[in-house]
Amino acid sequence: MNPPGRLVLLGHPVEHSLSPTFQNAALRFRKLFVPYEALDVRPDAFEATINSLVAEHAAGNVTIPYKERMALLCKRLTADARRAAAVNTFWVDDDGILSGDCTDVGGFNALAREVMGEIPRGARVAVLGSGGAAAAVLTALERWEDCTVQLWNRSRERAETLASRFSIATSVASSAEDAARAASVIVNATSIGLLNSDHPVPISALQPSAVVLDLVYRTGETAWVRAARERGLVASDGLLMLVEQGALAFERWFGMPAPRDVMRESVSRLPAAYGHR
Ligand code: NAP
């Protein structure tokens, strides 16, 4: 594929995103003189913005609230994007076709591998949340061997709709505590803890051997991850997943390995407040 002439992150809002920091660090390191810029796009301007980006042969990322809309606009989807019904990475193929991937799926698997060493067999996973991030997590979990899932969401109907789309044994729990009680891995795919110190589920409700994966990330980690560690649980926030989904996107656009160490290093000394992609 011809490399893109322009790289953008589309979202609303996007000003707190870390993606420009680590993508520009990667681009400088690889001597690719294409700037990566965040564009805050109003919902009524989204389709028109995509049309003009396609004409420019641009590529980029898509974040809240546009991942599902972008999946509908792309004419070619990877298997992960089709399964998750969400696109966070797009590009224009040489035949002019707008194409999309969901690298959050690979990002989540990388987080799980980093924390647990390898993907466990027979995991009992509690997934909290039923938005785009939860759909990417379920897409990844479908390939975990003998995995069973308890799904919980604040609005139960959304959890039931999401569960019905996936073939893994997904049952919908009536509370976060019920979902998490017997789980060997707990995934927070809600926005809880993004802007405050709230916990998606009390640590006291978890098995002492449970692994805590919080997709949310904040300066100094989320309060939930810190509390889990203080109780002796293995826990990680979502920063590693964020960098990995970006690294996989970089590899799609340029067909060369992403400099993951450079990308991680660029966000290791973060400003006082962050938390959005
Ligand atoms: P989304 O589609 O807007 O979904 C948000 C989810 O959070 C929904 O399940 C929503 O429940 C739930 N929620 C929001 N506020 C809540 C509250 N006060 N109590 C209970 N549930 C609440 O967003 P998303 O794309 O799935 O992202 C979810 C989180 O994952 C965000 O914090 C995002 O930053 C993070 N994320 C991280 C990465 C990464 O690379 N680390 C990647 C993707 C997403 P309802 O359905 O009831 O509204």
Structure description:
This protein has 277 residues and is α/β, with parallel strands linked by helices. The protein folds into two domains: 6-102 and 242-266, Rossmann fold, CATH 3.40.50.10860; 105-237, NAD(P)-binding Rossmann-like Domain (Rossmann fold, 3-Layer(aba) Sandwich). Helix content is 37%, strand content 18%. The longest helix is centred in the C-terminal third of the chain and has 16 residues, at 239-254. It starts with 6 loop residues before the first strand and ends in an 11-residue tail after the last helix. The protein binds NADP nicotinamide-adenine-dinucleotide phosphate (NAP).
Average pLDDT confidence is: 94
* Biggest beta sheet summary: 6 strands, mixed
Work out the number of β strands.
12
Amount of helix: 25-40%
**CATH level-3 fold name of the largest domain:** Rossmann fold
Labels describing this entry:
277 residues; Rossmann fold; six-stranded mixed beta sheet; six-stranded parallel beta sheet
